[in-house]
């Protein structure tokens, strides 16, 4: 085993609480034997994994390093400063708040720092690739603020079909004069032109907020352009391509904004920080500063291209015509008009291929059905898979979906065969109880 500590932890838990331990062991086995293609997921290193299970969790450290509301925070100050310093170095910025419990919490604090309730902001709508926290009515962002949305190019004949329409971004901003112009998305496969967003924002006096939750790892490795110096505020998760613990991060180069952000997050949004997670963030940022991380991210992008190309060869359509980053949206209806994201997700799971259904731009189907699948390569690349494995995965996907279209019996047979082949590949590329070695 590459991670003997995980075995020891599980053995310990079996003594302490067999019922909970069995569930955790089952999940470790699921991760070990399935191919993870969900674009927002990854497998953290043993160091990141085990930092989360340390005594750092026992402490209340409300406040910030040097200014806490509780005694005994000496070492918590050190670990939080270490995480801040590494985040600043990694993304090349002046101020970093490492306390957000999640990406959504980071966005909440960033909004509070830049806007008053009722203020207008511009973003991409969720159905086009945006995020819940970018102005959905059912989210705080759409309840307390006024979202306006810029469209993609929906014109099939346009050479930037299904990509950001910067002229439309400008038009929306000129009309609505938003306080904040947001970019950064959850299901957008192309490069974001941060300089262009800044140019448009400057024309109307808006602040640029870049939510790089998905592409943070690529940005850190220089595989996607950086939002700095263009964005005023950058938010991200730490657990997607960045391959750290589940959490959030807010960054800026503006001292005034950094003070507002700190106050907005605590005491505005959160109470005590998750110090064990902040310890794991420090370790993950340290890993991301190593040369191996760049090699990893370059392979993530190569794998995404290989998977997109192989699926295209099987008759699927990749929205916008391809991918520049770690993810792609697959238009299933190009392969067969009856294929839905809902069916595809369920059928592929039977074969050990874990994906999520996702609307495609201008999708005629509801969000619970969808015409698309979102696929990403961060987790498979952590596992050590390369381009030729992506060609194999595309073939498995097509075999399962083709069988599913024929009927239940065909699906059951084909999914079982593919499941065995998936398991074999997983055995050749083991995780260590759900945690990989670096690179
Ligand atoms: C994933 C994501 C988030 C939210 O992250 P959580 O940690 O789940 O709250 C925010 N913004 C974007 C663009 C995301 O993709």
Explain what this protein looks like in three dimensions.
With about 450 residues, the protein is α/β, with parallel strands linked by helices. The protein has two domains: about 55-290, 3-Layer(aba) Sandwich (Aspartate Aminotransferase, domain 2); about 290-430, Aspartate Aminotransferase, domain 1 (Alpha-Beta Complex). Helix content is about 45%, strand content about 10%. The strands form four sheets. It has a seven-stranded mixed beta sheet with strand order 4-10-9-8-7-5-6, sandwiched between helices. Strands 11-12-15-14 form a four-stranded antiparallel beta sheet. Helix 1 packs antiparallel against helix 2 (about 20-35) and helix 15 (about 385-405) packs antiparallel against helix 16 (about 410-430). The two termini are about 15 Å apart. Mean pLDDT is about 95; it is low at about 435-439. The chain binds pyridoxal-5'-phosphate.
């Amino acid at each position: 085993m590459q991670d003997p500590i995980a075995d020891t932890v599980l053995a310990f838990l079996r003594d302490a609480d067999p019922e909970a331990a069995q569930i955790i062991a089952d999940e470790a086995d699921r991760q070990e034997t399935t191919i993870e293609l969900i674009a927002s997921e990854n497998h953290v290193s043993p160091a990141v994994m085990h930092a989360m299970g340390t005594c750092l969790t026992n402490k209340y450290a409300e406040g910030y390093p040097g200014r806490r509301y509780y005694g005994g925070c000496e070492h918590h100050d050190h670990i939080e400063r270490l995480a801040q310093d590494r985040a600043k170095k990694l993304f090349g910025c002046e101020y970093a708040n490492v306390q957000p419990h999640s990406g959504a919490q980071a966005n909440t604090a960033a909004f509070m720092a830049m806007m008053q309730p009722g203020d207008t902001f511009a973003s991409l709508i969720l159905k086009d690739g945006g995020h819940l926290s970018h102005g959905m009515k059912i989210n705080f962002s759409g309840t307390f603020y006024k979202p306006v949305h810029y469209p993609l190019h929906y014109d099939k004949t346009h050479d930037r079909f299904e990509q950001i329409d910067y002229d439309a971004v400008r038009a929306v901003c000129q009309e609505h004069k938003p306080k904040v112009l947001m970019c950064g998305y959850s299901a957008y496969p192309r490069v974001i032109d941060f300089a262009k967003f800044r140019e448009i924002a400057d024309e109307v006096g808006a602040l640029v907020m870049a939510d790089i939750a998905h592409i943070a790892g690529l940005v850190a490795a220089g595989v996607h352009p950086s939002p700095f110096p263009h964005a005023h505020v950058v938010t991200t998760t730490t657990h997607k391509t960045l391959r750290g613990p589940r959490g959030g991060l807010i960054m800026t180069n503006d001292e005034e904004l950094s003070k507002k952000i700190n106050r907005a997050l605590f005491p505005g949004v959160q109470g005590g920080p998750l110090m064990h997670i902040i310890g794991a963030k420090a370790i993950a940022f340290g890993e991301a500063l190593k040369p191996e991380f760049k090699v990893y991210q370059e392979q993530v992008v190569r794998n995404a291209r290989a998977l997109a190309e192989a699926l295209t060869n099987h008759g699927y359509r990749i929205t916008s015509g391809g991918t520049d980053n770690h993810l792609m949206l697959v238009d299933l209806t190009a392969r067969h008009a009856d294929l839905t994201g809902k069916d595809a997700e369920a059928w592929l799971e039977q074969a050990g291929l874990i994906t999520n259904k996702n609307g495609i731009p201008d999708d005629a189907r509801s969000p619970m059905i969808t015409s698309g699948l979102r696929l990403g390569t961060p987790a498979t690349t952590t596992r050590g898979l390369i381009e030729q494995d992506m060609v194999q995965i595309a073939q498995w996907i097509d075999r399962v979906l083709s069988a599913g279209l024929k009927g239940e019996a065909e699906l059951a047979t084909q999914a079982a065969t593919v499941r065995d082949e998936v398991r074999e590949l997983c055995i050749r590329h083991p995780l260590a109880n759900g945690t990989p070695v670096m690179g």
